[in-house]
């Protein structure tokens, strides 16, 4: 006895310790404050700089590749274009004495729109390929393709022609060359157009991010009814739908858990109170018969608690997420007779009849072999509990649906209660006593099982005078004969 007391004290201390730890965790936890929001200007600037920088980099590399590729073609064109002019200048120089060449080149230079000069060969620094061309008597071109060099025959002097571009010539000075001005104008227009495009692209994204952030904040603060509005940007459409679906599911789960917690706590009180009362009576019971009676009552209460916990877990699992049904094709008449025969013993002296006359011969039906028997068994147990003497189970096919009716000749269900009876923990007045009382979960689970099969469960008045429960779900295949 002392050992049992010590064990009970240890268990109590352990439970108390767990409670203290739980309270410590809850008291220590403080959700971080909500800070900041998405900045449209910062988002726009980051996107713009990224896109513009990438565009400029790509354009620069492309221009470099194209310029390098066409440089040989451009140099060859310039060489052939200026060949005649250079030869004319050379002939004009050789008509005069060499001492007069500096003066003559100035006079000739005034005729052309580009600068002319004569330098010594050793003063030039050209790349080997152009130096080889120069020494071979051909025209050499500088790396920019704007200045030409021609070695005057039988001399060490070189005629320098250029820059041949008007913008580079001293005779046509300008603040900015027209190529530079054209490039600046082009890039300015590109930058402006790109900025407008990025603005109209970023703004819907910013609005969607802000609405999602605000919705997440509302959900985090406990406003579970908050939903994100429809996304303006296609990129966030699926995310918004997913978030709203998640919020809907969380709200549903919390509502179910609250409902279950409240209802179960209420349902647990009665058997626990009875067990406490029986425990107190056991200490005062003298006769063995009285003790056995009290122990039987206690066992019944334990079975009731076990049944409540089991039903609550099943209902919670189905309500949280309907599992995908694993459908199996069965001969429905044989299946129905088998399930009814399995529970017939509980009816004892009751008349339990199966009527499959309205079924086509060999009717095949697809159903989940785990969940659908539970639904049918629950209806049969319910009928056995409330019937007077007779229960009839019948089946028929209407259109592309199979219908199963469970009729009894009991008290029946008032019209106002026929919808409410399928809600969790809904109990009618007649079920409040212990003899016929349940937990109000059986029919709620039946409804969920039929929803799993894409069907319905309804309560109606029975032709026998009591209640009729009808299960119906679609036939996924045409009527076939075995």
TrEMBL record:
Keywords: ATP-binding, Cell membrane, Kinase, Membrane, Nucleotide-binding, Phosphoprotein, Transferase, Transmembrane, Transmembrane helix. InterPro entries: 2C_sensor_his_kinase, HAMP_dom, HATPase_C_sf, HATPase_dom, His_kinase_dom, HisK_dim/P_dom, HisK_dim/P_sf, Sig_transdc_His_kin-like_C. Its main location: membrane. GO terms for molecular function: ATP binding. Residues 263-477 form the Histidine kinase domain. It is found in: Cell membrane. It holds the Pfam family HisKA. It is a multi-pass membrane protein. This is histidine kinase.
